[in-house]
Backbone:
């Protein structure tokens, strides 16, 4: 059972990070064209579509991670890498879900304003997404190296 949960955990992690990375890259490419109705609609669709993959897969990573930690049953004598994975990874997932969800809905509302002549500012959303990606990859690094 642990092997299946590990596979599902890693698959969810790949889908989650891939979706976040796709949003960041596509919005960077669209940044100069934002302001027109077509570009704003496309940016909205990108955020909505990839968020449909990112948010459920992040929840799945969290749930499968909790199940794996329970199955390990190590008690209080856990190594550092397991503590980082358990506490750091869980915190990053929860905060990432909250911040990207809230900021994503705010950005979608700003992009939905009809007849907008100036480009929509996406810097806060992009910084939040990039921060979640970097923090998640740092947890993966610590766990991979088993520090």
Residues:
């Amino acid at each position: 059972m642990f092997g299946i949960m590990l596979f599902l955990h890693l698959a969810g992690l790949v889908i989650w990070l891939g979706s976040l990375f796709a949003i960041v890259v596509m919005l960077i490419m669209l940044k100069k064209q934002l302001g027109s109705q077509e570009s704003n609609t496309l940016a909205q669709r990108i955020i909505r579509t990839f968020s449909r993959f990112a948010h459920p897969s992040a929840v799945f990573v969290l749930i499968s991670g909790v199940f794996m930690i329970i199955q390990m049953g190590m008690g209080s004598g856990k190594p550092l890498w397991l503590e980082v994975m358990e506490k750091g990874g869980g915190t990053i997932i929860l905060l990432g879900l909250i911040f990207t969800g809230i900021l994503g809905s705010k950005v979608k509302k700003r992009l939905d304003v009809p007849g907008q002549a100036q480009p929509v500012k996406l810097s806060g959303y992009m910084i939040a997404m990039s921060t979640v990606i970097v923090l998640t990859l740092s947890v993966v690094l610590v766990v991979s190296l088993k520090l």
Notes: The two ends are 25 Å apart (CA to CA). The mean pLDDT is 89. The chain is about 80% helix and 0% strand. Residues 24 and 79 are 34 Å apart (CA to CA).
